[in-house]
């Protein structure tokens, strides 16, 4: 229910004043004497004064009932707001204004009503000519209902009028109604039902005091006088055609539905059009056909019986499979339910050339409907596309009068070409550096044009689908993108596949060159110089000893070179070179060899312990480096390549 705010301002009709004490200045109070408020709305009563700068206000009802509202005082105004208005607000309210020793009072009467909605018109059913219908006019949530008057009109004609003068036992919102039963006629089409309600409370001012609702009459006429016309006849030869037209009267105009009555009595819906055309009729098309005219208030039906007389059907042409260029295919031409079969001849044409024929001259043991066929195998080519296969069946019974004496079926040939000559072009190359863009373009010949499917071969041999676009693009190739990519050209005639290997090269990185146990050793010690590289495949590692006379390539194993009993001449700069086809990286260290205090050989227990320990540590370190390189770095060493780098 919409709620509206009613605010009362102004001055008129003083009901009463009480002067407590006279003052030098003149004080006045303003308040409307009467106001109408609808139940559920919001109303505000405003009491105003003049002649006093700081008045105080109070509100009460004449019978000291609760205010059922909220008071707000601002300056010379006091507002009593009722949100929402209810039956408890139907009182005479007093506003008291006090200024010093002076007091004034003024009253206002709040009248309550409810008339929030237009009437509702309800019908007991659709309006059908000649059938009684009950019209109900409803007025909801009305108060006081003993002031309500309702009128129901059909156009300008008054159908019923009603007052609700019964006494109200309690204050409440009521729904009142007026019912009329009448029988629609053709003259009522286009008229309107009008429900008019009036709330007679002239002594108070509110709007609207009258509401009405109009409902245009939609008068129906149930379907009737349904009839069917059949062309050419209700008796047909097999393979013939028939057109049946149905019409029905009614308002609104009935929709036509055609159905066929099944053996179990149910109806099989065939069409929603007035005209039903059946072509190439068969024996099973015989039966009862039903036309029904249907609208909102009823339906009317009519039946017709069709009889299809037995006679050979058109031949049926079938292929053993899809027509593919170069693949043999068997075509079958079948004539079902023919009699007498010894008079039958079947001819098969491709274009205008006869390619096979057959007669069935064998004696028949009994009279019966038989199915005869002709088969032949041929190899289609693309030149056959667009040609027409014609199966012509002739029944040579010239002594009998019947039509047709020959039937035929045609089928247009469409020869497919399986995908072939599938090619893949990789740009710029199938071997690129990491971060470079790669475009792989696939094409395949065939008819119809093959669809392209890109896949990637996984480690388990399965294919992972990637794209159905002819161009597969890697905007920034990564090392993990390396692998076998498969392009497939696919159409309904077959599949053609092409593979390409994509290699993403990564320059060596994270190279490390260390000396163990230290870069500073004593003469006679054992030292291991080891070079490792990051996770890059196909990387060659070359260890060299630098010298002014030329570099010496060291015969390292998995990037590790061991010097037993290091000598003073082993001191110097050692360099590790890690390279592959994408680039190289260098690292170097300086080995410092300290001489003994004298040149005499000597033996000490400490040296024995060190020697024994090194005999165990060195192989262990070698194995650690080997497995670390195998598991994490995936590097490799080539002695052939290493020898090439010797200066």
From TrEMBL:
One MF annotation (Gene Ontology) recorded for this entry: integrin binding
Chief location: membrane
Its membrane topology: Single-pass type I membrane protein
Gene3D superfamilies: Immunoglobulins (2.60.40.10)
Localization per Swiss-Prot or TrEMBL: Cell membrane; Secreted
GO process terms (BP): cell-cell adhesion
GO (cellular component) term, any one: extracellular region
TM region positions: 608-628
UniProt entry keywords in alphabetical sequence: Cell adhesion, Cell membrane, Disulfide bond, Glycoprotein, Immunoglobulin domain, Membrane, Repeat, Secreted, Signal, Transmembrane, Transmembrane helix, Ubl conjugation
SUPFAM superfamilies (UniProt xref): Immunoglobulin
Residue ranges occupied by any Ig-like domain in the UniProt entry: 2-105, 223-309, 419-503, 508-592
Cleavable signal peptide: 1-20
UniProt KW Transmembrane helix keyword: yes
Function statement: Cell adhesion glycoprotein predominantly expressed on the surface of endothelial cells that plays an important role in immune surveillance and inflammation. Acts as a major regulator of leukocyte adhesion to the endothelium through interaction with different types of integrins. During inflammatory responses, binds ligands on the surface of activated endothelial cells to initiate the activation of calcium channels and the plasma membrane-associated small GTPase RAC1 leading to leukocyte transendothelial migration.
Protein name: Vascular cell adhesion protein 1
Naturally occurring in which organism (per UniProt): Canis lupus familiaris (Dog)
Lineage: Eukaryota, Metazoa, Chordata, Craniata, Vertebrata
